[in-house]
């Protein structure tokens, strides 16, 4: 797997993949820097600037049947460095839809290159209802190349690139769940924003916010408890032992 920074194109097994992209225009409702958002809105060239690249269902031909049998999907996301005004470049952010058991589908990420800050957050649930403006838990997880990060059920998440290097991550999930962007969009972003200098500020749209915890991926117990081999990438671990990824099904 190779990322061409000149062409902004991912090559896997000699094949150049066609990505889905997110532009500055797609991010307008979740930006922290209102001044930047206003100026970007007035500029067609800035609005159309591509911020990150998403490659869905990446796999080797010989692994297609195994992925289908176990209902898994493997994705690769590339987030080049950029500043959105005072804010580090990030993904839009979303939650996952609920499974039949009433909890959302979890997800497992891995950093392949660069450094990622995963902001994960959980809404308060009262009498079976999730409140988008009330956050029960919020954690910022720093992950470097080789680190894996588990996003548990019922947590929303945003991925941030706080460096000047290209960030490349992969992830494995249940193959047909839906990502829910509306709850994040209506709150004008995640519960916290990360600005230059790794300064985190609260999103004032929220009625209740849990304090933000910060931790290194190597110390994050939900990932450690999975017992995954740290010396191999997610894709190879799944291909060798797909049954070990049963934790992706709530």
Main attributes?
250 residues, mainly beta, four-stranded mixed sheet, 6 helices, 19 strands, 13% helix, 40% strand
The parts where pLDDT drops under 50 for at least 5 residues are none
Largest sheet, spatial ordering of strands: 4-5-6-15-10-13
The percentage of residues in β strands lies in: 35-45%
Largest sheet: 6 strands, antiparallel
What does this molecule look like?
By secondary structure, the chain is mostly beta strands. The protein is built from six helices and 19 strands. The protein has helices spanning 34-41, 44-47, 64-69, 182-185, 221-224, 234-240; strands at residues 2-4, 9-12, 15-16, 20-23, 50-55, 72-79, 83-84, 87-88, 95-96, 107-113, 115-126, 129-144, 148-151, 155-160, 167-174, 179-180, 192-195, 199-202, 212-216. The strands form six sheets. It has a six-stranded antiparallel beta sheet with strand order 4-5-6-15-10-13.
